[in-house]
Amino acid sequence: MTLRHIVTWKLAAADEAGRDAAAIRIAELLEDLPPLIPEIRSLTVGRNVVETPTSHDVVLVADYDDEAALEAYQVHPEHQRAAAEIRTLVSDRAVVDFLV
User: Fold this and answer.
1) CA–CA dist 100, 92 (Å, integer)
2) Is the pTM of this model over 0.85?
3) pLDDT digits (tens, 9 = 90+) for 13-69
């Protein structure tokens, strides 16, 4: 089994240019992590393309061998660095973890 970790964010920027810049930066921060954190089996970052009142703007879909691997990722210093910057760019976050 694989543990799939999904995180979505609502961007804090009020204007489209700010949201675009934030989405690009979040993708850069996260896409840099797989070579640095061996527990990441796969990682994809995407931008929402269908706007609704309840939509979030950016999504992370990442796979790990198990919960221990996810925990190792979450406490890894490089993830902590990326997460700290991401927190400055977003207003809301949701997480779902499930087995595939």
Assistant:
1) 26
2) yes
3) 999 999 999 999 999 999 999 999 999 999 999 999 999 999 999 999 999 999 999
Residue whose entry in the numeric block shows the structure tokens 């691997």: 69
Instruction: Report the CATH number that the domain containing residue 85 is assigned in CATH.
Output: 3.30.70.100
Find the domain containing 40 and state its range. Answer: 3-99
Among all chains, which residue has been given the structure tokens 């902590």? 80
Structural domains counted in the chain: 1
Helices (H), the chain: 16-31, 67-75, 77-87
CB distance 9 to 92 below 8 Å = yes
Distance CA 53, CA 36 (A): 36
